[in-house]
Design goal:
Keywords: 2Fe-2S, Flavoprotein, Iron, Iron-sulfur, Metal-binding, Oxidoreductase. It holds the Pfam family Fer2. This is Oxidoreductase. It comes from Streptomyces benahoarensis. InterPro entries: 2Fe-2S_ferredoxin-like_sf, 2Fe-2S_ferredoxin-type, 2Fe2S_fd_BS, Beta-grasp_dom_sf, FAD-bd_FR_type, FNR_nucleotide-bd, MRET, Riboflavin_synthase-like_b-brl. The chain has 369 residues and is α/β, with parallel strands linked by helices. It has three domains: 92 residues, Elongation Factor Tu (Ef-tu), domain 3, CATH 2.40.30; 108 residues, Nucleotide-binding domain of ferredoxin-NADP reductase (FNR) module (Rossmann fold, 3-Layer(aba) Sandwich), CATH 3.40.50.80; 83 residues, Ubiquitin-like (UB roll) (Roll), CATH 3.10.20. It has nine helices and 18 strands. The strands form four sheets. It has a six-stranded antiparallel beta sheet, with helices on one face. Strands 9-8-7-10-11 form a five-stranded parallel beta sheet, with helices on both faces. The longest helix has 29 residues. The N terminus is likely disordered.
Length: 369
């Protein structure tokens, strides 16, 4: 026996269908743009040089609306506010913690949720203190300053994806898997962790994967993941996205040439490899600031960032000071750069540098500051 839908149900179905069609159209448009010869545009996503202001400049004040235990030692924070900038999978936020410490956390919520951002962090006993402050100070109702979002780890337009996650490194990959699923693009994920209880968002991923697309490897019961087998099973010319500890990333990079033809590796570091140290033979040099007309001397053992903040621009934005977050990227107008970062592409190195670690390869640099 058939049931005739009521008018309200018909209207609801039409609205839902329209929303679904709009999302599909948006995904198709994004793919067409990325295939365009003009993508990416030959410029930074946002003007980094000359923003000025330092702490509070271009920042938002958001409230912790919900705090949940995403896994053992992992808290997830849902931050709410008004007129939040849109984001895409792979993006991260800079959180300005109550102490003034700035840390980067990948967005792991739903990009379609225009009213909130979700981040997650694992408590690191041997970390630099940021994760402990998040766990101890950011509770429901607390306001926190954020900057961004910014995306240094975008999801490329490919016909198939293999995601390799290690522990908290799953956070940027979760929205990528959601997007691939929504757009009907084949994907698989290898998710490794110390134990199932320590792996955040595991239940959500198992539900999203549905069948055999998710391989969960808990070290306490399963040992190490078989990365060679995972790569061998990837379709030719698929995109491999990896985020996790350095040994995991290094292993995937080493095994990639043995996989099918045309695999491309995309990785993101969520902790510095090692603190930068002054290289033997570093010499002093001058940094000329085109906009302000000032000239600053950078001595051996001192970063460009520190020299600029101490001598000319005390409010310059920065965060990790170790060459992997991109907060301090500045445009170079003249001079040759000795790049020592973990982040910039070859194209970006043509006209910019990270002033927290890189130096001049010569007597001077001119910056757009």
């Amino acid at each position: 026996m058939s049931v005739v839908p009521r008018p309200r149900a018909v209207r609801t179905a039409l609205v839902v269908g329209g929303v679904a069609a709009a999302l599909l159209a948006r995904g198709a448009l994004r793919r067409r743009i990325r295939r365009s010869p003009l993508w990416p545009l030959p410029a930074l996503e946002e003007p980094i040089s000359g923003r000025g202001g330092g702490r509070g400049a271009g920042a938002l004040r958001l409230r912790v609306a919900e705090r949940t235990e995403a896994a053992e030692g992992v808290v997830a924070l849902r931050l709410t506010g008004e007129r939040l900038p849109a984001w895409e999978p792979g993006a991260h936020l800079d959180l300005v913690l109550p102490s003034g410490t700035v840390r980067q956390y990948s967005l792991c919520g739903d990009p379609a949720d225009a009213g909130s951002y979700t981040v997650a962090t694992r408590l690191l006993a041997d970390g630099r203190g940021g994760s402990r402050e998040v766990h101890e100070a950011l509770h429901e109702g607390v306001e926190v300053e954020v900057r961004g979002p910014r995306n240094r780890f975008p999801l490329a337009d490919r016909h198939a994806y293999l995601f390799v996650a290690g522990g908290i490194g799953v956070t940027p990959l979760l929205p990528m898997a959601r997007q691939a699923e929504a757009e009907g693009v084949p994907w698989r994920m290898v998710y490794a962790g110390r134990s199932r209880a320590s792996m955040p968002f595991l239940a959500e991923l198992e539900k999203l994967a549905g069948g055999d697309r998710l391989t969960v490897v808990a070290e306490d019961t399963d040992g190490r993941p078989d990365l060679a087998a995972a790569l061998a099973g990837a379709p030719p010319h698929a995109a491999v996205y990896c985020c996790g500890p350095d040994p995991l990333r290094d292993a995937v990079a080493a095994l990639l040439p043995e996989g099918p033809e045309g695999l491309t590796l995309h990785t993101e570091r969520f902790a510095p490899a090692a603190p930068p140290e002054a290289a033997a033979g570093d010499a002093p040099f001058e940094v000329k600031l085109r906009r302000t007309g000032r000239t600053v001397t950078v001595e051996p053992g001192t970063s460009v960032l520190r020299a600029l903040r101490e001598q000319a621009l005390p409010d310059l934005p920065y965060s990790c000071e170790q060459g992997f977050c991109g907060t301090c990227q500045q445009r170079v107008l003249a001079g040759e750069v000795d790049h020592r970062d973990e982040l910039l592409t070859d194209a970006e190195r043509d006209d910019s540098l990270l002033i927290c670690v890189s130096r001049a390869r010569g007597a001077s640099l001119t910056l757009d500051l």
